[in-house]
Amino acid sequence: QPAILWLRRDLRRHDHPALLKAHEDAGSAGVLPLFVIDPVLWKSAGPARRGWLAATLKATNSAYADRLVIRLGDPSVVVPKVARELGAARVHVTRETTPYGARRDARIAAALNDAEVELVETGTPYAVGPGLISNGSGKPYKVFTPFSKAWREHGWPAPAQVDRVRWATADSDGRVDAMLDKAIREAPELPPAGEDAAMQRWHEFLEDIADYGDDRDRPDRDATSRLSPYLKYGVLHPRTLLAEAPKSKRADRYVTELAWREFYADVLHHNPKSAWHDLNPLGIPYDEPDETFEAWKDGRTGFPIVDAGMRQLNETGWMHNRVRMITASFLTKDLHVWWPHGARYFLDRLIDGDIASNNHGWQWVAGTGTDAAPYFRVFNPTTQGEKFDPQGEYVKRWIPELGTDEYPDPIVDHKAEREETLRRYEHRGH
Ligand code: FAD
């Protein structure tokens, strides 16, 4: 019988355990690759990520010999319907562990089961599946360093290749083509989509990986891999990267960053509520977002490194990690706005927008998250700029009017707001 491969965050052709499993299952009856555009997720992404997903779907279709079937609608209706149309006995997926994805899949597994179709989960978007690493007493890790040590010791399987697959066919939804084209038109300029482009980027980065540890904090240098948008939709599997990263001390820093991605997915798996609620509430009051929040969003705070970051985000859908930390610190500690407001804005704009990495990154900066990120660590946007963008190249790139009358004065006094943050913290719970 034919099998369905329902693709979600695994839009690639190589190193794909669920594809391999579907292929072994269906054999000559063929595998039908299916993507469902879920209106809930589509609407929760801003124009940049919608464009990025659309471009990635087109590239995936080419990699799947133009056989990718794309349907529009609630997956709990669409997937069983396609299974019926095709007469499939099994729907293969990569296991999803985000709160929304896990709930959806449980619902769909039940619906399919009623129709005697099985949902088969193989692999995850991570080197080590969320939930698999635990400490000596069988509990999940709450702090990064011991997690990453256990994660490395756990190890991961080698990449799984499947060369020739026989495809089954079905029609895509007639509305899809126009929808994807529109999304691409409305997006800002995006990186080249697809697995080949991602691999090319990775191999270029490998040539410079030895400098990564020293330069990764410098937004003025193009020193990071910029693979996050590809990892977001599983265009590359982290296992592929881990298999190819050189085993040197210098390259090891890169492995550590991939471990952060895995850690946050694990934290979210164990604490689904931490997506939108404080993992460790501080018990302090926050201010409602007002016009200063709008200035932050638009990159008009009068603090160049903050404004450059927000403009890079608004114009390209990506922001350098160091600047994500600085802009998030500014919103939470200089403007005293609760982190979910900022996290939501980032998720809307980022092409790599990922609920686990984004929302826990925000919680880390806000001091409500994992690790002992002390609340009194308040980034000073001026000294951060001097340290990590010493010639001001990054800020000049994003703020052409810098140094002219057109550029706004600082909207707050950093020293006074820092003291205000510390005051709130000292009086927490009162
Ligand atoms: P590289 O430096 O080349 O790192 C390699 C890979 O490691 C990245 O692609 C990413 O998958 C992973 N990684 C690196 N740093 C982190 C980190 N701190 N946490 C988790 N994974 C990491 N990352 C996202 O993928 N999506 C998000 O929505 C996201 N939102 C963030 C929000 C805030 C407030 C902060 C502080 C960080 C956020 N990050 C997010 C993490 C990090 O900023 C990006 O992963 C990184 O900037 C992507 O660029 P890169 O691929 O060049 O990274």
TrEMBL record:
Domain Photolyase/cryptochrome alpha/beta, chain residue ranges per copy: 1-127
Cofactor binding note of this UniProt entry: Binds 1 FAD per subunit.
GO molecular function: deoxyribodipyrimidine photo-lyase activity; DNA binding; FAD binding
Xref: Pfam families: DNA_photolyase, FAD_binding_7
List of residues binding FAD: 212, 224-228, 254, 257-264, 352-354
Gene3D superfamilies: 1.25.40.80, DNA Cyclobutane Dipyrimidine Photolyase, subunit A, domain 3 (1.10.579.10), HUPs (3.40.50.620)
InterPro entries referenced in this protein's UniProt entry, alphabetically: Crypto/Photolyase_FAD-like_sf, Crypto/Photolyase_N_sf, Cryptochr/Photolyase_FAD-bd, Cryptochrome/DNA_photolyase_1, DNA_photolyase_1_CS_C, DNA_photolyase_N, Rossmann-like_a/b/a_fold
Keywords, alphabetical: Chromophore, FAD, Flavoprotein, Lyase
BP GO annotations: nucleobase-containing compound metabolic process; response to light stimulus; response to stress
N-terminal signal peptide: none
Needed co-factor(s): FAD
PANTHER family linked to this entry: CRYPTOCHROME (PTHR11455), CRYPTOCHROME CIRCADIAN CLOCK 5 ISOFORM X1 (PTHR11455:SF9)
Homology family: Belongs to the DNA photolyase family.
Name under which the protein is recorded: Deoxyribodipyrimidine photo-lyase
